[in-house]
């Protein structure tokens, strides 16, 4: 194939990837705004005395089950008014335009494993993936909410802010992130910004609020290291679940996101409640139905925000990278600073400096990942952010010996 014939074919997928990347950043900004609103609402509920980390996490995750409603409705409509199942089965799979590597050699298309790599996930595969994601997501969110009950807000914020480091490390292990100096610098810059904000917010009387009264709870709260451990665990599990999704799904068009989140909500309702019983029995979190109208409204609003924001969040991650969305979620800090300003609570200079560092870190990672080619990985020199390019090179490498044998 001549160069003149190859040039146009390279531009189309690259322009598509750039467009998807920009859309992903826009969705991420929307998620940041929604999560900031949720944080203000949750803090208001905590100030009123209703602090139930497990119940809040459980109800928020359970709200995902509503995504099964449109899926079931589509299936019922298809069974009643759609084409027969025999005819429907022949049109379930369609080649994904995003997955076509136009500039690859014809030999790549002959690889039988490409269909296994690019085909849409079945309902059984989607359910299996949702089961694994449910536990990772629930533990990450519950641990972060529970950490606030055992340690200071400053310690919890700093340790959970290490999620960027874990995401970069785990993403590099699974070859969905490149390890570059720019990314390392951006992660460290964002972490320093989080530290500045956390230290400014922290104070000597910044102690956790009481959410239990048993001997077990009092023993736990006497050891702030438990809260620090929960915050660190939240950061680790966050990195695990965000990379887990990127590795398993790879492309947004391979999965029915409504079905996926519907299964997550269903598994949460069925499998997570024993944890609440244990927390109630040991006195770490007594089950209490909210008595105030304010708490009920906030719980319902948080459920609504979770249903929409987490859906958009996963799509944003699939259109960008795990590290981009991880650093991007740090933008809740400058957005919260703006919110506090309009609420009559101007931020200190140290907080403004920290927020600025977070913004700089996000811009640096965004620019680095937006490049068609990021540059050499510090460990191997391989470009691993583009899964399709990586798979193409692997296939070609496997076919070189065959071609040599044929020539021989």
TrEMBL record:
Compartment(s): Membrane
Keyword Ligase belongs to the record: no
Single GO cellular component term: fungal-type vacuole membrane
Transmembrane segments: 21-42, 54-73, 129-150, 156-174, 181-199, 229-247, 259-283, 295-316, 323-343, 349-367
Topology of the protein relative to the lipid bilayer: Multi-pass membrane protein
Coiled coil segments of this chain: none
Listed InterPro entries: EmrE-like (IPR037185)
Keywords of the record: Membrane, Transmembrane, Transmembrane helix
Protein name (record): EamA domain-containing protein
Organism: Suillus luteus UH-Slu-Lm8-n1
